[in-house]
Amino acid sequence: MLRPLPGEKMAGRNGMILKPHFHKDWQRRVATWFNQPARKIRRRKARQAKARRIAPRPVTGPIRPVVRCPTVRYHTKVRLGRGFSLEELRMAGIHKKFARTIGIAVDPRRRNKSTEALQ
């Protein structure tokens, strides 16, 4: 049977561990946020570089139509839709493939139920 080395104490069954020094080396494990200002600058530069790279497309993502939410509960709320219909693009004189390259979202499933939406 193996015995603990002199000076080492083993925990016996369900008893208390005597003098548990678990927090001796806590300084190494502390996560600091001293790089927060530098990270802010790095994120800003990355945003500006991306804006230059994808210009003239919009930085915030493709342009989407404003639509009303379905059902009686939400039909007073407006939100961004999936994309413009093919008929709307045709009225604007833009081809669907070209629209995607310049940052306009296209939804081929979308139907125009009213003439007001096309104006």
TrEMBL record:
**UniProt superkingdom:** Eukaryota
Q: Which organism is this entry from?
A: Micrurus paraensis
Which residue ranges are recorded for the region named Disordered? Answer: 40-62
GO CC, sorted alphabetically, is: cytosolic large ribosomal subunit
Name of this chain's protein: 60S ribosomal protein L13
Q: Which family does it belong to?
A: Belongs to the eukaryotic ribosomal protein eL13 family.
Claim: Isomerase is one of the keywords in the record:
no
InterPro entries xrefs: Ribosomal_eL13, Ribosomal_eL13_CS
The biological processes this protein is annotated with in GO are:
translation
Q: Which key words tag this protein in UniProt?
A: Ribonucleoprotein, Ribosomal protein
